[in-house]
Amino acid sequence: MGWKSSLAATSAALLAQHASAQSMLRFGCSQLVIERSDPLVNPGINPSSHTHQIVGGNSFNFSMDPATMDPAKASTCTSCTYSEDFSNYWTASMFFRSPENGTYRLVPQFANWRRLGSDEKLPQDGGVTVYYMPPFGGSSKVTAFKPGFRMIAGDPTLRAKQGTYPGICHRCQGNGDGFAPCDSRDTSEFPLKMCPGGIRATVIFPSCWDGVNLDSPDHRSHMAYAPGSAALAGAACPASHPVRVPQVMYEIMWDTRPFNDPKYFEGGKQPFVYSFGDATGHGQHGDYLFGWKDESLQRGMDELGKNGCYDDNCSSALKIQDGKDAIACTKASQVEESVGRNGEWLTALPGNVPVT
Question: Over 90: is that where the pLDDT of 218 sits?
Fold first, then answer.
């Protein structure tokens, strides 16, 4: 079975399990800060090469050295609604590039939907919708990440479809969109058409760990996608990476609606660019740094499907804070520069990153 067929099958399983409302942890993490920092790829460098939108624990800094700090102990608040989750999750920012004069404007975000078929939104201000998913098929048992664990999904150097991952995609909301993440109607590149409901970006991380290393030089080699190359994984893992961990997924809701002018999409073009200079979208990526308190993540994953534990409602095993408190957890930028947070136009991408 090819990866597309396998992905379709696992996507159908996701749809069925999601409908049962007892399949995964899914919750909102509001914006903590937007700045040029990246403690995984550019540890200790102030500033890093391009801007990221960062969510999670407020101890986030330029180094995040696992030998000297634990986010669960160093943070005083988290922008996630599960109040024991002080992990940090970050992705590149998206900008609109004006075809008229070449200036840039930060694309705003909006809250994700709380339930399928509902108009209710998650209590979040921008940021990321985070998923922790058990296997789709086979044993549901997973081993939670350990303190110091970190990883990356996607490849920011890509500018073509070749070499992309099936779990890195964009959805054109309201214009022929499907449901399951990264299905056949989603694309690794930016949509080449106007999206009435904005663009949903998805980053799906690998689910298999080597069981030894909390990180690796490329932040990838200690992890592996499940056999078959499907983004959404079952319980199986390769012998080289035998430990099944929760599969992490991000959804980022970009409000591209203010830029829905037909002239911006003429001739197979589109006007959006990521903060690292990618005008194709193929290089979308996400960074993950574990920071759950004590054994709380394991407790939550073990509770799934029991006592009404699902999505952002697992109060039988995890502590939940009010959405207003999560939204109030922010921090000042560590870099003194404008990144367009207030809607201002910029003459260049922050850091003068060239568009490629």
Answer: yes
